[in-house]
Amino acid sequence: MRRPTDSAxxxxxxxxxxxxxxxxxxxxxxxxxxxxxxxxxxxxxxxRRTTCGGVAGRPRRGRxxxxxxxxxxxxxxxVGPARHRRVAHRGTDDRSGAERPAEGRGCQPGRxxxxxxxxxxxxxxxxxxxxxxxxxxxxxxxxxxxxxDADTDTRGGRDVDTxxxxxxxxxxxxxxxxxxxxxxxxxPFLPVHPPLxxxxxxxxxxxxxxxxxxxxxxxxxxxxxxxxxxxxxPSPSRLIAVRPDHASAPLLTPFLDxxxxxxxxxxxxxxxxxxxxxxxxxxxxxxxxxxxDFSDNLTLTSISAYRTYDGFFQVDLDGTSYGxxxxxxxxxxxxxxxxxxxNGSLAGGRLDYTVGGYFYSGRGASAGLIELTFQAVNPPAxxxxxxxxxxxxxxxxxxxxxxxxxxxxxxTDALTLSLGIRYxxxxxxxxxxxxxxxxxxFQPLEGANGRFDGDHVDYxxxxxxxxxxxxxxxxxxxxxxxxxxISSRPxxxxxxxxxxPEKLEAWEVGFKSDFFDRRARFNVSxxxxxxxxxxxxxxxxxxxxxxxxxxxxxxGEAEMTGFEAEFSLNPTSGLAIDAAVGYLDFEYTExxxxxxxxxxxxxxxxxxxxxxKWSLGAQYEFALGDGRTITPxxxxxxxxxxxxxxxxxxxWVVDDYTVADARVTYRNPxxxxxxxxxxTNLFDKYYYTSLYDNLYGSQGTVIANVxxxxxxxxxxxxxx
Length: 720
Known about the structure:
Blueprint: E1 47-49, E2 53-54, E3 131-132, E4 136-137, E5 141-143, E6 159-162, E7 177-179, E8 189-190, E9 197-199, E10 204-214, E11 219-232, E12 237-242, H1 249-252, E13 274-275, E14 279-295, E15 298-316, E16 325-346, E17 351-372, E18 388-410, E19 415-431, E20 434-435, E21 449-468, E22 471-482, E23 485-486, E24 498-499, E25 502-515, E26 520-538, E27 551-569, E28 575-591, H2 593-597, E29 612-620, E30 622-625, E31 628-639, E32 642-643, E33 653-654, E34 657-668, E35 673-680, E36 688-694, E37 701-706, E38 711-718
Antiparallel strand pairs: 1-9, 3-4, 5-6, 6-7, 8-13, 10-11, 11-14, 12-37, 14-15, 15-16, 16-17, 17-18, 18-19, 18-20, 19-21, 21-22, 22-25, 23-24, 25-26, 26-27, 27-28, 28-29, 29-31, 30-31, 31-34, 32-33, 34-35, 35-38, 36-37
């Protein structure tokens, strides 16, 4: 745990989550830190899906972000106590896929006839297995067949895989053929069905360069740049629930009875649009920081930064082969930020201050093809009427200006008082563009727009007292806000509505201690947060919440109370033990009538808010001579159950789980070589990380994101 006054500010060149627009509460920094959750965001695991399948592969959905406290001098960062805290976990971050055999399955479990050409995708990348069960599932390859889709001509005797079992049931075969080729992620709209593959894999490349120039003893310049390309697969998911009274329940329900690591995702819409089943993001950023020391007690700092990215993500979100919900959404965004601040010291070094301003401007587009039918049909029946079928090209613009002052006054050698204030003025606009993909005529939402304008004043007060070199206590109060905006996923014009900022008041008290000659450390903090105009996204209800819906609103007021504790111990040379625990108690104190009508109740809790989290780790460093060491380490982490929807239906619970990791590291300081063998999810625990709920919406399903199975990796590092 960091001392409240030691938090690093978000600079204009800072690209961490807490510094991005809308990532959390902004304004005066609070005392709550953002701590990583073990096993929360790992590189995608290999998740095979059937070419006859219909969903999986939605973009990652993170839980509500916990944010780190920062100084008022930070540039547009988040403010502290965040609603959802995460217990720190010191374990390996090395991840790698490991191949395993698994059984193949058909397009619709137990209901295929022999020879319909089913090919499976399963979570673990393994060889194809032909299995005899209630029916035979097998891959069928033919020559010289002309596909039913317009561009799937297979003349010339090329090998093809029969694909496209959309809505396969008893007595139905696959529909269409596709050339055996890997679709290019540069051409995401394919007129053919995607080939056999996996979900959850990652393909990331990047480079970073930092150059520092010390022009004089008073002036220095730091320039940095980075470039990256992420061509990864969609997140792995599977269907886990179907609403019994949904019109398509008889067709959807059989997909519940599949293997744990299987997904029936075709990425093929009901109107014949095929997607590549990939996510892509390419971008680069540059920044420059100039520091000039007018004197030993006065420094001027300027930070300028520019970043841009473009890419797309693809979604097939019904968990079956019927393609009821398919989306290709392209992203194109650029932003510029400028921070100017002065750091100084007065009163013989007893008073430190930071005063400055921050400017941010961003503009982006969200373009793509969306098809939502929410109804399954068996071929050759024609596709049902679409709830939404359009080409979109939505434009968003953001501007933020702020000014801040932060002071630290050392009243005595032991007593420190911190005061800060920040003013923020921001606006956001959203303009929707909608066309029919076939006729290219404008749709009713064409030109619909919304605008949010707002300003906010936040402040922070913190007092800490160092009783001796090994014990510090502190108490703080801070306000902050999470910016407002416009609901960006409307299905009807009345859903294009702005929502206001979510405001926060946060109290925190705690202590930091070292003992046993600093071989042990014990830090504890308790906090109480009050939320006003809390933001929630509602997907079902009445009025503007009537399905289909995904409307963000200010739902009401809430309170959250909890504590965090961290402990570390080095009892002997080479042995290190660390542990952390966090507890949250959340409750609503007031909810609006419209939100209550959607099914939300006063005793519900916000999504992705675990009551308990803890982690425990231990390692021992063995000396091998000549400075060489080998260090085995073991970590275990726990998270209690969470809800994936503001309405706490039992079907929307992500169960609690305990996961262990292990790692052995060899170090040779003479050569600078470090080699590590790591195993994640050591005991091969099967669990879900999150859910996408539309059970009582138009789709009538719940989709779960499946966690990574056991994996091993070897990493080699060379230090120069």
